Amino acid sequence: MPSPEHLELSADDPFEYVLMQIAMTYRMKSESYASEKDPFQTIRDIGYFTGLTPLRCTEILLGKHYAALKQWQNRVPVQVLPIAHTKTSDDAYLDRAVYAVIAKVLYDEEEAVHASVNSGKAQHRDGAQTLGSSR
Predict the structure, then answer these.
(1) pTM above 0.85, yes or no
(2) Which of 9, 69, 96, 132 is 20–30 Å from 1 (CA)?
């Protein structure tokens, strides 16, 4: 099996085509949750202000998109923050997929931080120390 760095996706395969759409959606919408240094800065900021982990914040966003899809399926207009508009099911599915992947990235990051704390060195991917990490 090829490593992820050498994986090529085929637009002719329906599953792989959707994976490409997920990546395109992430890149297009990342400005709403990214900074230059951290692709998940807004999610981390929400965690800071709410006292929740970034992973938990992402799970809540997933739930919000599940609710939006459920309401769309019932043909009820959905107001989605920060801009009120009705989402199509296609957009809701892609948003959920993007947030699910972000949740997986943040889960892996939290696991790495926990492992680092247990070994005495806690750092984010970008090298910034986490709260409570050894200095």
Answers:
(1) no
(2) 96
